[in-house]
Amino acid sequence: MKIEGKKVIWSEYQKEIADDNYFYVRSCIRQNFFPGSEVAFLRIMRDVLKKDVFEHPCHTTCSGIGYHGDVVPVETAMTVVARQFSLMTEAGYTNYVPSCITSFGLYTEILDTWHHFPEVEEKVRRQLKKATGREFKKPENLAHASDVIYKFRKEIAAKSKYRLINKETGEPLKVVDHIGCHYSKMFPSKGVGGAEYPYVLTGMIEEWGGQIVDYPERRHCCGFGFRQYLVQANRGFSIACSKEKFESMKPYQPDMIITNCPGCPMFLDRWQYVINEMEGKRYGQNGEGIPVFTYEEVAGLVLGYDPWDLGLQMHQTDCEPVLKKIGIEYSPEDKYNLAIIPSYSDSHKLINV
Amino acid sequence: MGKLYDLLLEDIRFEEGLNACMNCGVCTAICPAAEFYNYDPRKIVDTVQSKDEDKIIELLKSETIWYCGECMSCKTRCPRGNAPGLIIMALRGLSQELGYFVESEKGRQQLAIKRTVGDWILSTGYCVYLDGITIAMHPEQGPVWEWVQDNKAELLNRLGGNYKGDGPGILRKIPEETLAELKRIFEVTGGMERYEKIESFSKTKAKEMNLELTEGIDNEYFRHIYKTNNGTHSR
Questions:
Q1: Closest-CA residue of chain A to B81
Q2: Interface test mutation site (partner A, options B159, B183, B195, B196, max chain A beta carbons within 10 A)
Q3: Which of A105, A147, A284, B77 has the fewest CB atoms within 10 Å distance of its CB?
Q4: In this predicted model, what pLDDT tens digit does every residue of B11-25 receive, in sequence order?
Q5: B53 CA to chain A: closest CA distance, Å?
Q6: A347 φ/ψ angles, rounded to the nearest 5 degrees
Q7: Domain annotation for chain A: domains and CATH numbers
Q8: Which domains does chain B have, with CATH numbers?
């Protein structure tokens, strides 16, 4: 194989990710379902990597779930996003980092539309001014939070307490990566590795000692489908998509799944529970489910964070088989103990540090 | 050129999503919704580019435009740079503007999305909000979610959140002045008008179907549209 040629091709699938001074916006879904992941992101950025991350208390939903649920018109979504940019401008930042993939996709789509249709951007500026009196500058750098963790994956590896290796066998854990559709399917050049071979999570797993599993339905949607999950009558679509993925990955005996989307880890986690309830079927080893993690949860585990500080007790599919395989020291009895006061710093509660 | 096609052209997503489709069908091949539903995005794009007014009306009233999950896998693969998913979004927008959405079982569900996600955006500043994600509406969330709901304040505190608190942080209270700005944006940009149209057309339809529709989600019409699946949508 001619490696030089590969390097030339690969260079087209790199993206610029800012080095410091991030304006962070949260994910609605993740704040509800994976609050520990956003805390872990800020702990890693501020306490481990010593980076400046700013959170504006007045930022809101980007309206993306409403937009893709088709109740929020495109111009409304654009103006809500313009307001978020105005908060960034007001705070003196230029590097925009959303926690959510739906948001990241929406920001990417809007910036692309404004690039091709400057008159639309002008109209949105007028509407924002009229509605709120606000003005804004566009971000100089837009990166998803998983891009940022990818960028610093080696630094995290250098400070790691654990590796993604089976303690008993010495073999790397077999990891399935699941990339949120709106990370790069709409705009491949905006994601690390493009749409067909996204590398953002693979890069983390390889750096932290694991082995990525390739399987036929690797790029299939988890089945969120917005209205296909939001309305109970449509959830057959959602679970069918996840099931197709589980059936496809099962023969490769994955130890765990890693995701970078807000909804995907919740669906891949919960639909395993439902499939077991409906059909008595499990997809993991030893009659267990396949634990599903966010990238911050995996980064946190590698760095030696307490699993219950990371919020792993909020998963329906038990994560403990993976903790045991890696040999992570933890207290099973503390899992549901809500009286524990975490011993780490309060830096994640600040606007910035 | 038909009137409806002109209206579709006013949607920037339609202009971005449709260049010239050569009917290769790669969008249908990659589409997760086409695997599950009686759905074929290639046919939709073909119908739309025919500019046939009657066929476009039929689409706007149909079940089929509501099957897409907007994953946008079609955009990645289309050799002509089309995005059937964006065309679908334009069709769904127009169907709601003109009130045709209430003519299909799947279309009527828009009121359920408006009264959950849509209303949460304006009342809380979040498009998904813990207090509204109940076990009754989300039994698939499992026993862990029951525990989360029973202990949400303590749990969020344990995990470093700021549930309903001031300042930054997880599930913080979004300040009143911020919510007022969001509302004003919706008023100025047509978001509020869209909400009102969904409500108004749904009320007429509920009357026609002889189903009670009051405020909120605890009424016959909401329960009907949220749960009914006539079983003819997929193979």
A1: A186
A2: B159
A3: B77
A4: 999 999 998 899 999
A5: 23
A6: -60, -30
A7: 14-145 (1.20.1050.140), 153-334 (3.40.50.11810)
A8: 3-103 (1.10.1060.10), 107-227 (no CATH)
